[in-house]
Design goal:
Elements lengths: L1 E2 L2 E2 L4 H7 L1 H19 L6 H20 L6 E3 L4 E3 L1 H28 L5 H18 L3 H19 L6 H32 L4 H9 L5 H17 L9 H7 L2 H26 L4 H23 L5 H22 L7 H24 L18 H4 L1 H15 L5 H15 L3 H27 L11 H19 L5 H9 L4
Helix pairs in contact: 2-3, 2-5, 3-4, 4-5, 4-11, 4-14, 4-20, 5-6, 5-11, 6-7, 6-11, 7-9, 7-10, 8-11, 10-13, 11-13, 11-14, 12-13, 12-18, 13-14, 13-17, 13-18, 14-16, 14-17, 14-19, 14-20, 16-18, 16-19, 17-18, 17-19
Length: about 500
């Protein structure tokens, strides 16, 4: 099969050809592990450099190598379409930013563990598989690849009891949610005789869905609800975000959430689209509770990490609004709004955590609001970068966060979920207060801290993030067409 100047091989070779971006990440992870085992360099820049090159190579393959359109591989377990490619570009880009931030931060907090970068890459591999998954069992394996690596990353600062505690909590609750997810998959298989999303869709379309299938679907909602930190499955989020190292928290808040929503969206909008009347009501309730609880609980927090944790919960609720609005309408606009919003959330979250990473030390991360006092006086650039990210998270124009929320509210109202849009607007208004608190502390409180050492990589990241927040906020048309193409490929 010919595509431009490329010739796409057939059979197994064709499947492997499509897998090259993922295989590149796997090869990079193995290379980092071998270097740590054999060479054991004291300077972790070598591992960071190899990881960065690996991610750039994988990103180049995703963007530059043409594909021959939507296709399945490995007996239909993977689906290569614009939707999966879109998420993989987002995931690899986010991981690259985390790798850029990591060397200086790890040195600052005294963590000299070479496997950190290998774990990042293995977690990314699981995320990429999750975005391409077309089979529930493969999705479960991808979730475990991602989760096990992130459990270890959360506890990577072994001498810090809070880091170890966060990793342990995440592991215990994550194992419980994985068990529910697996049990749900077993019930779906029992009801349909298949774990492939296409087969599940055919069963639902034929009107053969019964109580067993809907019970399995309910357990899938619970399992994915945990991964995206939806209420009431959010209990782990504040403690894990606070205890884990800042770069790991950034990776969880952006990558894990985006990958989980990629799989969640594919399961609901492909496998169970024909039964949307059965899941839209519980998902509506989850969405409303998640928006309200996340934003209200953040009001009383005094640690910026915990504020961003509850913010992450609230934003999960906003993203769920798109899935509720896609309840069998046949339109790809809700899915397009979801994709745009996840890009926006990833950008502004990484920007906020990039600044927080500068406040870490071997004694621990100093992320209390009082630690930000006078930051605008000491580091105007850092204060402006953090303020821009927080304003975007609050949905203040002309940032990308405002456009993302506007897209979500628009599709919710258009599809008839006006009540949910009203709850979202109220939740967003509540969120403005706690996003403004750190800005007030930075600009209006007297300086109390010392100067921070800002590395070149961090400056590059902050500049890119600030540019993206304003560029996609002022010119959303630069991103929206890609979102619409990716969303339309779900039904292709």
């Amino acid at each position: 099969m010919s595509t431009g100047d490329y010739t796409v091989p057939v059979g197994l070779a064709s499947d492997l050809f499509r897998m090259t971006p993922l295989l590149a990440v796997f090869a990079g992870a193995m290379a980092v592990m071998l270097i740590e085992a054999v060479v054991r360099p004291t300077d972790r820049w070598l591992q960071a450099g190899i990881s960065g090159i690996t991610l750039l190579f994988s990103l180049g393959l995703l963007v530059l190598v043409p594909s021959d359109g939507p296709a399945t591989a490995f007996s239909g377990m993977l689906r290569f379409d614009a939707y999966g490619t879109f998420f993989n570009v987002l995931l690899v880009s986010g991981a690259l930013i985390v790798v850029l931030l990591s060397p200086d931060y790890l040195k600052r907090i005294g963590v000299r563990v070479g496997e950190y970068y290998a774990l990042l890459l293995f977690a990314l591999l699981g995320m990429m598989l999750l975005a391409l998954g077309n089979d529930l069992m493969l999705m479960f394996v991808a979730v475990e690849i991602m989760s096990i690596a992130v459990y270890v990353l959360a506890a990577i600062k072994r001498e810090d009891s809070r880091s170890v505690e966060s990793g342990f909590k995440y592991f215990i609750l994550g194992a419980f949610s994985s068990a529910l997810l697996l049990y749900g998959i077993a019930l779906v298989y029992g009801a349909t005789g298949t774990t492939g999303l296409d087969g599940v869709q055919a069963t639902v379309a034929a009107g053969e869905a019964g109580a067993l299938l809907y019970t399995g679907m309910g357990l899938l909602l619970v399992g994915f609800g945990f991964k995206v930190a939806a209420v009431p499955f959010h209990m782990w989020t504040p403690d894990v975000y606070q205890g884990a190292p800042v770069t790991v928290t950034a990776f969880m808040a952006s990558g894990v959430k985006a990958a989980s929503f990629a799989a969640f969206g594919r399961v609901l909008l492909v496998g169970f689209l024909g039964s949307s009347s059965e899941w839209v009501c519980p998902l509506w309730i989850l969405c409303a509770l998640t928006m309200l609880v996340g934003n209200v609980a953040a009001l009383v927090q005094t640690d910026l990490k915990r504020i961003l944790a509850y913010s992450s919960i609230g934003h999960a609720g906003f993203a769920l609004m798109a899935l509720v609005a896609a309840d069998g309408s046949g339109s790809s606009e809700p899915a397009s709004a979801l994709l745009f919003y996840l890009v926006a959330y990833t950008i502004m979250t990484l920007g906020a955590f990039a600044v927080l990473g500068l406040m870490g030390s071997e004694e621990g991360d100093t992320t209390e609001l009082s630690d930000l006092a006078g930051l605008a006086e000491r580091h105007p650039y850092l204060a402006a970068s953090l303020a821009l990210s927080l304003l975007s998270l609050a949905g203040i124009p002309p940032t990308v966060g405002f456009v993302g929320k506007f897209q979500l509210f628009m599709v919710a109202v258009h599809e008839g979920f006006v009540g949910l849009a009203v709850i979202g607007a109220i939740s967003g208004a509540i969120g403005v207060y706690y996003y403004l608190r750190p800005i007030v502390v930075m600009y209006m409180h007297p300086s109390e801290g010392s100067a921070l050492e800002v590395g070149r990589a961090t400056r590059v990241v902050l500049s890119l993030v600030a540019f993206a927040i304003l560029a996609f906020g002022l010119l959303p048309s630069a991103l929206l067409p890609f979102c619409r193409v990716a969303a339309a490929s779900l039904g292709g």
